[in-house]
Amino acid sequence: MKYIIVGLGNFGSSLGMALTSQGHEVIAIDSNMQKVEAYKEVISHTVCMDATDEYTVTGLPIIDTDIVVVAIGEDQGANVMATALFKTLKARRLISRSINPLHQKVLQAIGVDDLILPEKEAADRWAKRLSLRYFVDSFELTDHFSIVELSIPNTLIGKTVDDLQLKQKFNIRLLSTMRYEYYEDSFGRTQRKPSIEGLAEPEQVLQDKDVLIIYGANKHINQFLRSVGVKIQ
């Protein structure tokens, strides 16, 4: 996949390096040449430019980019201006860093697809979330074990929990399933909240739009994902 990351602070640089190490193409931009030079060997492409300048930003391959992440954290004004500019230029999926509740509301009003709260969420977690097609979220219990949320792959729709044989084949467990309920926020924009279905039962039939909550060793979860056709770097 191809990403544009705006801002090479601690979060933006960590995210750029994590995605690059997973084999993705990353264009990281910053107005500080020292930062651009510092990361040119560990991020696919680094470019020195002002992300609030429409003339220079239009030269980026925005149409061919899967996800744009505005990671500017120190300057809220620049963050908002850059986010609005990429929204105007029709970024396919636009994610922006939120600094505080008011800033979050402004970004929601602009129409971002997702918000990052980097003080609470690690860059490597977002790298995983952005790079897997079916990945929704995760909670790492240790360096080797996680609880992950996965949008149900098409090949599993209509199967029962028992059909999957997750414990026998992969040594992982399906803890539960959930669905997202959608509602309109105070800006009239669609938001979502999770609805947990309860503990997974062997006879439960998996349905379209289910989100699977799986526990196990990371290597075993990856084996399961590969078995259902999910590509993993």
Automatic annotation (TrEMBL):
Signal peptide: none
Entries under InterPro entries matching the protein: NAD(P)-bd_dom_sf, RCK_C_sf, RCK_N, Trk_Ktr_HKT_K-transport
Domain RCK N-terminal: 1-116
Superkingdom of source: Bacteria
Record-linked Pfam families: TrkA_N (PF02254)
UniProt name for this protein: Potassium transporter
